[in-house]
Write a structure and sequence with these properties.
This protein is of the alpha+beta class. Helix 2 packs across helix 3. The N and C termini lie far apart (about 60 Å). The chain contains 8 helices and 5 strands, in the order H-E-E-H-E-E-E-H-H-H-H-H-H. It folds into 2 domains: about 130 residues, Enolase-like, domain 1, CATH 3.30.390; about 80 residues, no CATH class. It has a 3-stranded antiparallel β-sheet.
Length: about 230
């Protein structure tokens, strides 16, 4: 007898079977190293369960929403990197009824000195489409630990601009403040290393250029203690 479940029922069953994904990707970030969830880890967990419940998933479309060249000056000279942001529509199809599907829109950023920025952006978007669609836990939750070890950050008084949004210092100051905190705390340093890896940035300066919104969000989290 054919499986009569709809796409929602199938995806719900898959979600029930996949609770966590093993962290098999080793990342060396300066003085901190950690285990991360790679795309291969996610695919290894998802593919057999999707096959079991008759679901096929794939990126149905991609759109470059932002791109540019990042230029930074180091002690070794000028360094140029390509930045790219890709919007991906990821589709989950009922194999027994192909006209029944769910689309999820996801975004990924990639930064690289050569030609890997598009691949990094696509990989990030695909990985998180699967993680979020099936509510897979990875154990990484910045809200649990981001407000620790803040000695050395001059928070001052909380200010807002005329729109009611928090008023932030210049990005260069936020970068330096986060560096100070990271230098005093292995825990925060590791968290920042994960943040950089997730966004394809090699350092906080690159993150500030590519994703100032994320830099501000993390600066705000680290300054909320006290």
């Amino acid at each position: 007898m054919a499986d009569q479940r709809n796409i929602f029922q199938r995806m719900s069953a898959i979600t029930s079977e996949i609770s966590t994904v093993a962290k098999n990707l080793s990342v060396d970030a300066g003085k901190s190293s950690y285990k991360a969830v790679g795309e291969a880890d996610v695919l290894a967990a998802v593919k057999p369960i999707e096959a079991k419940h008759g679901v096929y998933s794939y990126p149905v479309s991609r759109t470059i929403t932002d791109s540019g060249e990042m230029v930074s000056t180091t002690k070794y000279g000028e360094r140029k990197q390509l930045f790219m942001r890709v919007e991906t529509v990821y589709r989950f199809v009922n194999i027994d009824k192909p006209d029944e599907y769910i689309d999820i829109t996801t975004y990924g950023d990639g930064v690289d000195t050569q030609d890997k920025a598009p691949g990094k952006a696509m990989t990030y978007g695909d990985k998180y489409a699967l993680l979020k669609a099936y509510k897979i836990q990875t154990g990484d939750d910045p809200d649990q630990t981001a407000s620790e070890d803040l000695s050395g950050v001059n928070r001052g008084k909380k200010q807002h601009d005329r729109t009611g949004e928090p008023a932030y210092p210049p990005e260069e100051q936020m970068v330096e403040a986060l560096k100070v905190v990271a230098s005093k705390s292995e825990k925060v340093n590791g968290m920042i290393a994960k943040l950089l890896d997730a966004n394809g940035a090699r350092d906080l300066a690159e993150l500030a250029f590519a994703r100032p919104d994320i830099l501000k969000a993390w600066y705000q989290k680290l300054c909320q203690k006290g």
